[in-house]
Amino acid sequence: LAATEREPRLRPPAEAPVRLFTEPELARYDGQKEGQPIYLAVKGVVFDVTSGKEFYGKGAPYNALVGKDSTRGVAKMSLDPADLTHDITGLTEEELKSLDDTFNNVYKAKYPIVGYTSRRILNEDGSPNLDFKPEDQPHFNIKDEF
Asked: Which residues, including other chains, have CB under 8 Å from residue 41's CB and lie 6 or more apart?
């Protein structure tokens, strides 16, 4: 991410309640409509990046990341469409460290959390994943999110 994007800002409080997003719901917040919030998910956490619309809005350098869970792209610092996914399979230790650093020092530090992706707590068929424990997720600590 650009050096200016890494500069700390105070994270504004979330104005809406935290909610669960399906992929089609998250896709509605892709920065293409003027006046609509811009959302980006990393590690299943949905951030409101509207205040950074110069980075994430329509035609902006990182617009490809928004409206979806772009965890792999953030980890690899890649805008390749194949990397714009939640899937972290096969990432190197260095990429996972980069993901954690960017998640904590850019997204959590600057942008309000507005929800979570349904993939984090639901099975593929939409039923609740009764075995889901946030603390068991790789590179995830719910206590650090708030």
From this structure: 21, 26, 47, 68, 69, 70, 71, 86, 117
Distance, in Å, from the CA atom of 44 to the CA atom of 56, rounded to the nearest integer, reads 18
SS3 at position 15 = coil
How many residues would you count in the chain? 146
Classified by CATH at the fold level, domain 20-121 comes out as Flavocytochrome B2; Chain A, domain 1 (3.10.120)
Tens-place pLDDT, residues 34-55? 999 999 999 989 999 999 999 9
CA contacts within 13 A on the Cβ side of 6: 6
Nearest to residue 119, comparing CAs of 62, 28, 47, 43?
43
Six-digit token string for 142: 């719910």
Task: Say yes or no to pLDDT of 144 above 70.
Answer: no
Rounded distance between C-alpha atoms, residue 84 and residue 134, angstroms: 22
pTM value is 0.77
Domain ranges of the chain: 20-121
